[in-house]
Amino acid sequence: MRQQPAFAGTLAVLDGEFSILEVTLKPSRATLRRPSAGVQQFDLAYRQQYRAFADGMWLPVDFHIAIDMELGLTGLQFPYMRRDIIQRLSAYRVNQVLPDSLFGRKQIEEPTRTEEDSLFTHFQDAVPLSSEERQAFAEIDSSVSLLEAFKPSGFLARFMPAPMPAEASDQATNPWRLTPSVRANRVDAAYLGGEVERTLSESLDARLQGGYSAGHSRWAYGGGLQAKSVDGTLSLDVAYQSDVSTRYRSHNFGRGFNSVQVLLGADDYFDYLWNRRLSTELRLGSAAHDLVFAFGLQGEEHRSLRVSSDADPLGLYDSQRPNPPIEAGSLRSLSLSLEHGKAYRPWSLFAYRRVRAQAEYAKDVLGGDFDFAQYQVIVDWHLRTILKRRSPPNALDLRFVASTASGDLPVQRFVALDARGGLFSPFGGFRSLRDGPYEGERSVAVFWEQYLRTIPFEVLGLQSLADRGIGLILHGASGRTWIGRHKRQKLGFDPTYATSFHHEAGVSLILSHILRIDVVRRIDRAEWSVGMSLARLDFFDGSADRP
User: Fold this and answer.
1) Would you call 538 exposed, middle or buried from its count of C-beta atoms within 10 A (0-12, 13-18, 19+)?
2) What residues have CB less than 8 Å from 105, skipping those under 6 apart?
3) 24, 156, 282, 327: which could join 76 in a potential S-S bond, CB 3.0 to 4.6 Å?
4) Nearest Cα to 183, choosing from 261, 271, 111, 255?
5) Which residues contact 133 (CB under 8 A, 6 or more apart)?
6) Helix or strand or coil: residue 388?
Protein backbone atom coordinates (compact mmCIF):
# COMPACT_ATOMS: atom_id res chain seq x y z
CA MET A 1 0.00 0.00 0.00
CA ARG A 2 1.57 3.27 -1.13
CA GLN A 3 0.11 5.19 1.82
CA GLN A 4 2.02 3.09 4.37
CA PRO A 5 5.24 4.64 5.73
CA ALA A 6 8.31 2.93 4.31
CA PHE A 7 11.91 3.49 3.17
CA ALA A 8 13.41 3.39 -0.30
CA GLY A 9 17.08 3.14 -1.16
CA THR A 10 19.97 0.84 -2.02
CA LEU A 11 21.84 -1.98 -0.34
CA ALA A 12 25.46 -2.81 -1.18
CA VAL A 13 26.08 -6.53 -0.57
CA LEU A 14 29.46 -8.32 -0.68
CA ASP A 15 29.30 -10.94 -3.41
CA GLY A 16 29.85 -14.47 -2.19
CA GLU A 17 29.50 -13.72 1.54
CA PHE A 18 26.13 -11.94 1.22
CA SER A 19 27.15 -9.44 3.91
CA ILE A 20 25.81 -5.89 3.89
CA LEU A 21 28.48 -3.31 3.10
CA GLU A 22 26.38 -0.15 2.97
CA VAL A 23 22.78 1.00 3.34
CA THR A 24 21.45 4.23 1.84
CA LEU A 25 17.80 5.02 2.59
CA LYS A 26 15.29 7.84 2.26
CA PRO A 27 11.76 7.91 3.72
CA SER A 28 8.97 7.36 1.24
CA ARG A 29 6.58 10.13 0.26
CA ALA A 30 3.94 8.75 2.65
CA THR A 31 6.42 8.68 5.54
CA LEU A 32 7.73 12.20 5.20
CA ARG A 33 4.83 14.37 4.17
CA ARG A 34 5.21 18.04 5.00
CA PRO A 35 3.76 18.40 8.52
CA SER A 36 2.62 22.01 8.36
CA ALA A 37 2.01 25.02 6.18
CA GLY A 38 5.26 26.63 7.30
CA VAL A 39 7.46 23.74 6.13
CA GLN A 40 7.98 24.02 2.37
CA GLN A 41 10.62 21.30 2.15
CA PHE A 42 11.77 18.67 4.61
CA ASP A 43 13.92 15.77 3.39
CA LEU A 44 15.86 13.10 5.25
CA ALA A 45 18.56 10.71 4.08
CA TYR A 46 20.26 7.91 6.03
CA ARG A 47 23.51 6.13 5.28
CA GLN A 48 25.31 3.42 7.24
CA GLN A 49 28.47 1.41 6.46
CA TYR A 50 29.52 -2.01 7.75
CA ARG A 51 32.92 -3.64 8.23
CA ALA A 52 34.13 -7.14 9.11
CA PHE A 53 35.23 -7.86 12.67
CA ALA A 54 36.31 -10.98 14.51
CA ASP A 55 34.81 -14.34 13.53
CA GLY A 56 33.44 -12.92 10.28
CA MET A 57 30.91 -10.58 11.95
CA TRP A 58 29.89 -7.52 9.95
CA LEU A 59 28.94 -4.62 12.20
CA PRO A 60 28.04 -0.95 11.55
CA VAL A 61 30.90 1.53 11.86
CA ASP A 62 29.04 4.81 11.31
CA PHE A 63 25.65 6.48 10.96
CA HIS A 64 24.98 9.47 8.67
CA ILE A 65 21.88 11.67 8.68
CA ALA A 66 21.32 14.50 6.20
CA ILE A 67 18.43 16.93 6.81
CA ASP A 68 17.35 19.46 4.19
CA MET A 69 14.76 21.98 5.29
CA GLU A 70 13.15 25.10 3.90
CA LEU A 71 10.71 27.14 5.97
CA GLY A 72 8.36 29.80 4.71
CA LEU A 73 4.89 31.15 4.09
CA THR A 74 3.46 33.59 1.62
CA GLY A 75 5.30 36.81 2.42
CA LEU A 76 7.82 35.19 4.79
CA GLN A 77 10.76 33.11 3.58
CA PHE A 78 13.74 31.72 5.54
CA PRO A 79 17.05 30.72 3.93
CA TYR A 80 17.61 27.09 2.96
CA MET A 81 18.95 25.01 5.88
CA ARG A 82 20.96 21.78 5.84
CA ARG A 83 22.21 19.69 8.74
CA ASP A 84 24.61 16.74 8.50
CA ILE A 85 25.06 14.40 11.44
CA ILE A 86 27.84 11.81 11.49
CA GLN A 87 28.25 9.27 14.28
CA ARG A 88 31.11 6.80 14.48
CA LEU A 89 30.66 3.37 16.04
CA SER A 90 33.89 1.76 17.20
CA ALA A 91 35.69 -0.17 19.93
CA TYR A 92 33.72 -3.38 19.35
CA ARG A 93 34.69 -6.38 21.45
CA VAL A 94 33.27 -9.56 20.03
CA ASN A 95 32.33 -12.61 22.12
CA GLN A 96 33.74 -11.29 25.37
CA VAL A 97 33.45 -13.57 28.39
CA LEU A 98 31.10 -12.05 30.94
CA PRO A 99 31.30 -12.85 34.66
CA ASP A 100 28.59 -15.12 36.10
CA SER A 101 27.81 -12.51 38.74
CA LEU A 102 26.39 -10.28 36.04
CA PHE A 103 23.54 -12.74 35.52
CA GLY A 104 23.08 -13.76 39.15
CA ARG A 105 21.34 -10.55 40.21
CA LYS A 106 17.79 -9.68 39.23
CA GLN A 107 18.54 -5.95 39.12
CA ILE A 108 21.65 -4.12 38.06
CA GLU A 109 22.24 -0.85 39.81
CA GLU A 110 23.17 2.02 37.55
CA PRO A 111 26.60 3.40 38.46
CA THR A 112 26.75 6.93 39.79
CA ARG A 113 27.65 9.37 37.08
CA THR A 114 30.74 11.50 37.62
CA GLU A 115 32.31 14.01 35.30
CA GLU A 116 35.73 12.38 35.73
CA ASP A 117 34.55 8.93 34.56
CA SER A 118 35.71 8.59 30.96
CA LEU A 119 32.88 6.12 30.33
CA PHE A 120 30.47 9.07 30.21
CA THR A 121 32.70 11.55 28.38
CA HIS A 122 30.98 12.78 25.21
CA PHE A 123 32.78 12.78 21.88
CA GLN A 124 36.02 11.40 23.25
CA ASP A 125 36.58 9.73 19.86
CA ALA A 126 35.25 12.42 17.55
CA VAL A 127 35.00 12.03 13.78
CA PRO A 128 37.72 14.17 12.14
CA LEU A 129 36.42 17.35 10.49
CA SER A 130 36.90 18.11 6.84
CA SER A 131 38.82 21.23 5.84
CA GLU A 132 35.56 23.06 5.05
CA GLU A 133 34.12 22.10 8.44
CA ARG A 134 37.25 23.24 10.30
CA GLN A 135 37.11 26.60 8.54
CA ALA A 136 33.40 27.01 9.31
CA PHE A 137 33.88 26.27 13.03
CA ALA A 138 36.81 28.67 13.19
CA GLU A 139 34.77 31.52 11.71
CA ILE A 140 31.61 31.04 13.80
CA ASP A 141 30.45 34.15 15.66
CA SER A 142 28.89 32.82 18.88
CA SER A 143 27.07 36.13 19.46
CA VAL A 144 24.92 35.70 16.33
CA SER A 145 21.43 34.41 17.08
CA LEU A 146 19.59 31.84 14.98
CA LEU A 147 17.25 34.53 13.66
CA GLU A 148 20.23 36.65 12.60
CA ALA A 149 22.01 33.74 10.94
CA PHE A 150 18.87 32.77 9.00
CA LYS A 151 17.39 36.21 8.42
CA PRO A 152 13.91 35.98 6.87
CA SER A 153 12.80 37.90 3.81
CA GLY A 154 9.40 38.97 2.47
CA PHE A 155 6.86 41.63 3.41
CA LEU A 156 5.98 39.81 6.67
CA ALA A 157 9.62 39.75 7.82
CA ARG A 158 9.23 43.21 9.35
CA PHE A 159 6.84 41.74 11.91
CA MET A 160 9.33 39.17 13.16
CA PRO A 161 10.68 39.94 16.68
CA ALA A 162 14.04 41.64 16.62
CA PRO A 163 16.91 39.77 18.33
CA MET A 164 17.53 41.01 21.84
CA PRO A 165 20.88 42.80 22.26
CA ALA A 166 23.25 41.41 24.84
CA GLU A 167 23.09 44.56 26.91
CA ALA A 168 19.29 44.30 27.06
CA SER A 169 19.20 40.71 28.27
CA ASP A 170 18.79 41.87 31.87
CA GLN A 171 15.25 42.92 30.94
CA ALA A 172 14.25 39.26 30.99
CA THR A 173 14.74 39.30 34.76
CA ASN A 174 12.74 42.49 35.29
CA PRO A 175 10.41 41.82 38.23
CA TRP A 176 7.74 44.20 36.85
CA ARG A 177 5.31 42.91 34.23
CA LEU A 178 2.50 45.01 32.70
CA THR A 179 -0.38 43.46 30.76
CA PRO A 180 -2.94 45.81 29.16
CA SER A 181 -6.62 44.88 29.16
CA VAL A 182 -9.03 46.20 26.53
CA ARG A 183 -12.52 44.86 25.84
CA ALA A 184 -15.83 45.83 24.26
CA ASN A 185 -19.29 44.42 24.92
CA ARG A 186 -22.87 45.54 25.29
CA VAL A 187 -22.47 46.14 29.07
CA ASP A 188 -19.04 47.80 29.37
CA ALA A 189 -19.39 49.56 26.00
CA ALA A 190 -15.62 50.11 26.11
CA TYR A 191 -13.23 49.05 28.87
CA LEU A 192 -9.59 50.06 29.25
CA GLY A 193 -7.35 48.78 32.00
CA GLY A 194 -4.43 46.57 32.80
CA GLU A 195 -2.64 44.38 35.30
CA VAL A 196 0.74 44.89 36.95
CA GLU A 197 2.61 41.89 38.34
CA ARG A 198 5.74 41.98 40.46
CA THR A 199 7.96 39.22 41.74
CA LEU A 200 8.65 39.99 45.39
CA SER A 201 10.82 36.93 45.98
CA GLU A 202 11.50 33.51 44.55
CA SER A 203 8.35 32.21 46.21
CA LEU A 204 6.04 35.26 46.28
CA ASP A 205 4.31 37.20 43.49
CA ALA A 206 1.94 40.17 43.75
CA ARG A 207 -0.44 41.68 41.22
CA LEU A 208 -2.74 44.70 40.93
CA GLN A 209 -5.36 45.28 38.28
CA GLY A 210 -7.82 47.95 37.40
CA GLY A 211 -9.71 49.64 34.62
CA TYR A 212 -12.60 51.87 33.66
CA SER A 213 -15.95 50.77 32.21
CA ALA A 214 -17.28 53.56 30.02
CA GLY A 215 -20.75 52.04 29.74
CA HIS A 216 -21.45 52.35 33.47
CA SER A 217 -18.91 55.08 34.33
CA ARG A 218 -17.48 52.73 36.91
CA TRP A 219 -14.00 51.63 37.97
CA ALA A 220 -13.02 47.98 38.26
CA TYR A 221 -10.14 46.98 40.53
CA GLY A 222 -8.51 44.04 42.26
CA GLY A 223 -5.29 42.35 43.20
CA GLY A 224 -3.76 39.28 44.75
CA LEU A 225 -0.79 37.47 46.25
CA GLN A 226 0.56 34.08 45.26
CA ALA A 227 2.96 32.12 47.46
CA LYS A 228 4.53 28.99 46.00
CA SER A 229 7.14 26.42 46.88
CA VAL A 230 10.50 26.51 45.11
CA ASP A 231 9.74 23.34 43.15
CA GLY A 232 6.31 24.69 42.14
CA THR A 233 4.33 21.75 43.53
CA LEU A 234 2.48 23.80 46.15
CA SER A 235 0.91 27.26 45.81
CA LEU A 236 -1.52 29.46 47.71
CA ASP A 237 -3.36 32.26 45.91
CA VAL A 238 -5.41 34.98 47.61
CA ALA A 239 -7.26 37.41 45.34
CA TYR A 240 -9.90 40.15 45.38
CA GLN A 241 -11.73 41.50 42.35
CA SER A 242 -14.60 43.91 41.73
CA ASP A 243 -15.42 43.83 38.03
CA VAL A 244 -17.81 42.71 35.31
CA SER A 245 -17.91 38.90 35.01
CA THR A 246 -19.44 36.65 32.38
CA ARG A 247 -22.53 34.76 33.56
CA TYR A 248 -21.38 31.45 32.04
CA ARG A 249 -18.00 30.10 31.02
CA SER A 250 -16.96 29.28 27.46
CA HIS A 251 -14.26 26.67 26.77
CA ASN A 252 -13.69 27.98 23.24
CA PHE A 253 -14.04 31.76 23.33
CA GLY A 254 -12.49 34.43 25.49
CA ARG A 255 -13.53 38.01 26.06
CA GLY A 256 -10.90 39.26 23.63
CA PHE A 257 -12.36 37.26 20.74
CA ASN A 258 -15.85 38.37 21.74
CA SER A 259 -14.74 42.01 21.74
CA VAL A 260 -13.64 41.73 18.13
CA GLN A 261 -16.95 40.14 17.24
CA VAL A 262 -18.92 42.91 18.93
CA LEU A 263 -16.87 45.65 17.27
CA LEU A 264 -17.63 44.03 13.91
CA GLY A 265 -21.34 44.26 14.66
CA ALA A 266 -21.93 40.60 15.62
CA ASP A 267 -24.02 39.44 18.57
CA ASP A 268 -22.43 39.53 22.00
CA TYR A 269 -21.60 35.92 22.92
CA PHE A 270 -21.84 36.37 26.70
CA ASP A 271 -24.19 37.63 29.40
CA TYR A 272 -22.79 39.63 32.32
CA LEU A 273 -23.06 40.50 36.00
CA TRP A 274 -21.16 42.68 38.46
CA ASN A 275 -19.14 40.49 40.79
CA ARG A 276 -17.21 41.42 43.93
CA ARG A 277 -15.16 38.34 44.75
CA LEU A 278 -12.69 37.36 47.47
CA SER A 279 -11.12 33.95 46.93
CA THR A 280 -8.43 31.68 48.33
CA GLU A 281 -7.10 28.70 46.41
CA LEU A 282 -4.60 26.03 47.48
CA ARG A 283 -3.03 24.03 44.64
CA LEU A 284 -0.97 20.87 44.99
CA GLY A 285 0.57 19.54 41.79
CA SER A 286 2.96 16.93 40.48
CA ALA A 287 4.75 18.02 37.31
CA ALA A 288 6.04 14.49 36.72
CA HIS A 289 2.49 13.14 36.45
CA ASP A 290 0.68 16.30 35.18
CA LEU A 291 -1.60 16.03 38.19
CA VAL A 292 -3.06 19.05 40.02
CA PHE A 293 -5.43 19.10 43.01
CA ALA A 294 -7.03 22.41 44.02
CA PHE A 295 -9.13 23.45 47.01
CA GLY A 296 -10.77 26.86 47.11
CA LEU A 297 -12.96 29.11 49.21
CA GLN A 298 -14.78 32.05 47.68
CA GLY A 299 -17.17 34.75 48.77
CA GLU A 300 -18.98 36.67 46.04
CA GLU A 301 -21.53 39.50 45.81
CA HIS A 302 -23.57 39.36 42.59
CA ARG A 303 -25.57 42.18 41.04
CA SER A 304 -27.42 42.44 37.71
CA LEU A 305 -26.30 44.78 34.93
CA ARG A 306 -28.19 46.38 32.08
CA VAL A 307 -27.07 47.06 28.54
CA SER A 308 -25.22 50.36 28.31
CA SER A 309 -27.06 52.90 26.18
CA ASP A 310 -25.45 56.20 27.16
CA ALA A 311 -21.83 55.36 26.27
CA ASP A 312 -21.73 53.88 22.79
CA PRO A 313 -19.13 55.77 20.76
CA LEU A 314 -19.26 53.40 17.78
CA GLY A 315 -23.06 53.01 17.72
CA LEU A 316 -22.89 49.23 17.38
CA TYR A 317 -25.14 48.10 20.23
CA ASP A 318 -28.58 49.09 18.95
CA SER A 319 -29.31 45.54 17.81
CA GLN A 320 -27.82 43.78 20.83
CA ARG A 321 -30.18 41.75 22.99
CA PRO A 322 -30.91 42.77 26.62
CA ASN A 323 -28.58 41.51 29.33
CA PRO A 324 -30.76 39.12 31.38
CA PRO A 325 -31.08 39.62 35.14
CA ILE A 326 -29.38 37.27 37.59
CA GLU A 327 -30.37 36.12 41.07
CA ALA A 328 -28.65 38.85 43.08
CA GLY A 329 -27.19 38.01 46.46
CA SER A 330 -24.20 36.68 48.39
CA LEU A 331 -22.64 33.41 47.27
CA ARG A 332 -20.32 31.60 49.70
CA SER A 333 -18.87 28.33 48.45
CA LEU A 334 -16.00 25.90 48.59
CA SER A 335 -14.65 24.14 45.50
CA LEU A 336 -12.60 21.04 44.74
CA SER A 337 -10.96 20.09 41.45
CA LEU A 338 -8.65 17.38 40.17
CA GLU A 339 -6.93 17.67 36.80
CA HIS A 340 -4.73 15.13 35.04
CA GLY A 341 -2.94 16.19 31.87
CA LYS A 342 -1.88 19.45 30.29
CA ALA A 343 -3.91 22.59 30.91
CA TYR A 344 -6.54 23.15 28.22
CA ARG A 345 -5.98 25.94 25.71
CA PRO A 346 -8.68 26.84 23.17
CA TRP A 347 -7.87 26.41 19.47
CA SER A 348 -4.75 24.42 20.33
CA LEU A 349 -2.75 23.03 17.42
CA PHE A 350 -2.02 19.97 19.56
CA ALA A 351 -4.20 17.16 20.87
CA TYR A 352 -4.95 16.46 24.52
CA ARG A 353 -5.20 13.52 26.83
CA ARG A 354 -6.61 15.02 29.98
CA VAL A 355 -9.32 14.60 32.58
CA ARG A 356 -10.74 17.33 34.79
CA ALA A 357 -13.29 16.81 37.56
CA GLN A 358 -14.58 19.63 39.76
CA ALA A 359 -17.26 20.27 42.36
CA GLU A 360 -18.63 23.39 44.07
CA TYR A 361 -20.68 23.48 47.28
CA ALA A 362 -22.66 26.50 48.49
CA LYS A 363 -24.50 25.72 51.73
CA ASP A 364 -26.42 27.71 54.31
CA VAL A 365 -23.76 27.04 56.92
CA LEU A 366 -21.31 29.14 54.87
CA GLY A 367 -23.50 32.23 55.31
CA GLY A 368 -24.58 32.87 51.73
CA ASP A 369 -27.95 33.30 50.06
CA PHE A 370 -27.65 30.20 47.87
CA ASP A 371 -27.78 26.48 48.60
CA PHE A 372 -26.60 24.13 45.86
CA ALA A 373 -24.00 21.55 44.81
CA GLN A 374 -22.60 21.35 41.28
CA TYR A 375 -20.42 18.65 39.66
CA GLN A 376 -18.63 18.73 36.31
CA VAL A 377 -16.30 16.41 34.40
CA ILE A 378 -14.43 17.03 31.15
CA VAL A 379 -12.45 14.38 29.27
CA ASP A 380 -10.25 15.11 26.24
CA TRP A 381 -8.75 12.08 24.52
CA HIS A 382 -6.71 11.24 21.45
CA LEU A 383 -6.49 7.87 19.66
CA ARG A 384 -4.29 7.02 16.69
CA THR A 385 -6.41 5.16 14.16
CA ILE A 386 -5.39 4.99 10.47
CA LEU A 387 -1.80 4.65 9.24
CA LYS A 388 -0.45 5.31 12.71
CA ARG A 389 3.20 5.49 11.63
CA ARG A 390 2.72 8.47 9.34
CA SER A 391 3.86 11.90 10.41
CA PRO A 392 1.56 13.26 11.61
CA PRO A 393 -0.55 10.17 12.32
CA ASN A 394 -4.23 10.11 11.49
CA ALA A 395 -6.16 10.08 14.73
CA LEU A 396 -9.51 10.43 16.44
CA ASP A 397 -9.97 13.30 18.91
CA LEU A 398 -12.74 13.12 21.50
CA ARG A 399 -14.13 15.63 23.98
CA PHE A 400 -16.73 14.63 26.57
CA VAL A 401 -18.46 17.18 28.82
CA ALA A 402 -21.02 16.46 31.54
CA SER A 403 -22.41 18.30 34.55
CA THR A 404 -25.17 17.97 37.11
CA ALA A 405 -26.41 19.91 40.12
CA SER A 406 -28.60 19.60 43.16
CA GLY A 407 -30.38 22.25 45.21
CA ASP A 408 -31.35 25.65 43.82
CA LEU A 409 -28.63 26.46 41.28
CA PRO A 410 -28.60 30.22 40.50
CA VAL A 411 -28.65 31.26 36.86
CA GLN A 412 -25.15 32.74 37.18
CA ARG A 413 -23.83 29.21 37.81
CA PHE A 414 -25.49 27.63 34.76
CA VAL A 415 -23.17 25.60 32.53
CA ALA A 416 -22.87 26.24 28.80
CA LEU A 417 -22.20 24.08 25.74
CA ASP A 418 -20.43 26.23 23.17
CA ALA A 419 -21.88 27.30 19.84
CA ARG A 420 -19.99 28.74 16.90
CA GLY A 421 -18.63 32.28 17.09
CA GLY A 422 -19.81 33.96 13.92
CA LEU A 423 -18.14 32.10 11.04
CA PHE A 424 -15.55 30.60 13.38
CA SER A 425 -16.45 27.02 14.36
CA PRO A 426 -13.67 25.43 16.45
CA PHE A 427 -13.63 21.91 17.86
CA GLY A 428 -15.47 21.48 21.17
CA GLY A 429 -18.64 23.35 20.21
CA PHE A 430 -21.74 22.79 18.11
CA ARG A 431 -20.74 24.02 14.66
CA SER A 432 -24.35 24.25 13.46
CA LEU A 433 -25.58 26.28 16.47
CA ARG A 434 -25.81 30.00 15.69
CA ASP A 435 -27.96 31.45 18.49
CA GLY A 436 -25.42 31.34 21.29
CA PRO A 437 -24.45 28.48 23.59
CA TYR A 438 -26.90 26.05 25.16
CA GLU A 439 -27.15 26.69 28.90
CA GLY A 440 -28.71 24.85 31.79
CA GLU A 441 -28.51 23.26 35.22
CA ARG A 442 -27.32 19.95 33.74
CA SER A 443 -25.56 19.08 30.51
CA VAL A 444 -23.94 16.28 28.53
CA ALA A 445 -22.16 16.40 25.17
CA VAL A 446 -19.60 14.53 23.11
CA PHE A 447 -17.57 16.01 20.25
CA TRP A 448 -15.37 13.98 17.88
CA GLU A 449 -13.08 14.47 14.90
CA GLN A 450 -11.42 11.85 12.70
CA TYR A 451 -8.46 13.21 10.74
CA LEU A 452 -8.00 11.62 7.32
CA ARG A 453 -5.71 14.38 6.07
CA THR A 454 -4.41 13.74 2.54
CA ILE A 455 -5.17 9.99 2.39
CA PRO A 456 -8.42 10.27 0.34
CA PHE A 457 -6.67 12.32 -2.36
CA GLU A 458 -3.67 9.99 -2.42
CA VAL A 459 -5.95 6.96 -2.90
CA LEU A 460 -7.74 8.74 -5.75
CA GLY A 461 -4.41 9.52 -7.40
CA LEU A 462 -4.71 13.27 -6.81
CA GLN A 463 -1.17 13.60 -5.51
CA SER A 464 -0.85 17.23 -6.56
CA LEU A 465 -3.68 18.17 -4.17
CA ALA A 466 -2.11 16.15 -1.35
CA ASP A 467 1.22 17.90 -1.90
CA ARG A 468 -0.51 21.25 -1.44
CA GLY A 469 -1.73 20.22 2.01
CA ILE A 470 -5.37 19.62 1.03
CA GLY A 471 -7.07 17.02 3.19
CA LEU A 472 -10.30 15.91 4.86
CA ILE A 473 -11.65 15.61 8.40
CA LEU A 474 -14.85 13.85 9.47
CA HIS A 475 -16.53 15.20 12.61
CA GLY A 476 -19.72 15.24 14.62
CA ALA A 477 -21.31 16.15 17.96
CA SER A 478 -24.27 15.26 20.16
CA GLY A 479 -25.53 16.82 23.37
CA ARG A 480 -28.09 18.88 25.24
CA THR A 481 -28.78 20.81 28.45
CA TRP A 482 -31.65 20.64 30.94
CA ILE A 483 -33.47 23.35 32.91
CA GLY A 484 -36.23 22.41 35.33
CA ARG A 485 -39.73 23.72 34.58
CA HIS A 486 -39.99 25.62 37.87
CA LYS A 487 -36.58 27.17 37.27
CA ARG A 488 -37.54 28.38 33.79
CA GLN A 489 -40.63 30.09 35.20
CA LYS A 490 -38.48 32.11 37.62
CA LEU A 491 -35.74 33.18 35.17
CA GLY A 492 -37.37 36.29 33.73
CA PHE A 493 -35.95 35.64 30.24
CA ASP A 494 -35.93 32.91 27.57
CA PRO A 495 -32.61 31.03 27.72
CA THR A 496 -31.07 29.12 24.81
CA TYR A 497 -31.34 25.48 25.74
CA ALA A 498 -32.17 22.21 24.02
CA THR A 499 -35.45 20.43 24.69
CA SER A 500 -34.01 17.34 22.98
CA PHE A 501 -30.60 16.13 21.89
CA HIS A 502 -28.73 18.18 19.31
CA HIS A 503 -27.06 15.92 16.68
CA GLU A 504 -24.77 17.04 13.90
CA ALA A 505 -22.21 15.54 11.50
CA GLY A 506 -19.96 17.05 8.89
CA VAL A 507 -16.82 17.07 6.82
CA SER A 508 -14.03 19.64 6.72
CA LEU A 509 -11.75 20.50 3.83
CA ILE A 510 -8.19 21.31 4.94
CA LEU A 511 -6.48 24.02 2.90
CA SER A 512 -2.69 24.53 3.00
CA HIS A 513 -2.35 22.17 6.00
CA ILE A 514 -3.98 24.53 8.54
CA LEU A 515 -7.13 26.33 7.34
CA ARG A 516 -10.44 24.46 7.44
CA ILE A 517 -13.79 24.90 5.73
CA ASP A 518 -16.35 23.13 7.93
CA VAL A 519 -19.55 21.88 6.30
CA VAL A 520 -22.05 20.62 8.89
CA ARG A 521 -25.42 18.92 8.67
CA ARG A 522 -27.68 19.22 11.69
CA ILE A 523 -29.42 15.88 11.85
CA ASP A 524 -32.25 16.61 14.28
CA ARG A 525 -33.47 19.61 12.24
CA ALA A 526 -32.15 18.93 8.72
CA GLU A 527 -30.17 22.19 8.48
CA TRP A 528 -26.83 22.95 6.83
CA SER A 529 -24.07 25.26 8.10
CA VAL A 530 -20.69 26.37 6.78
CA GLY A 531 -17.90 27.73 8.97
CA MET A 532 -14.14 28.11 9.28
CA SER A 533 -11.61 26.90 11.84
CA LEU A 534 -8.03 25.68 12.21
CA ALA A 535 -6.66 22.19 11.70
CA ARG A 536 -4.07 20.75 14.03
CA LEU A 537 -0.56 20.80 12.60
CA ASP A 538 0.57 17.89 14.76
CA PHE A 539 -0.78 15.69 17.52
CA PHE A 540 2.00 15.77 20.09
CA ASP A 541 2.17 18.09 23.10
CA GLY A 542 3.81 15.72 25.60
CA SER A 543 0.58 14.49 27.14
CA ALA A 544 -0.89 13.27 23.85
CA ASP A 545 2.06 10.94 23.25
CA ARG A 546 1.55 8.99 26.44
CA PRO A 547 -0.04 5.55 26.42
Assistant:
1) middle
2) none
3) 156
4) 255
5) none
6) coil
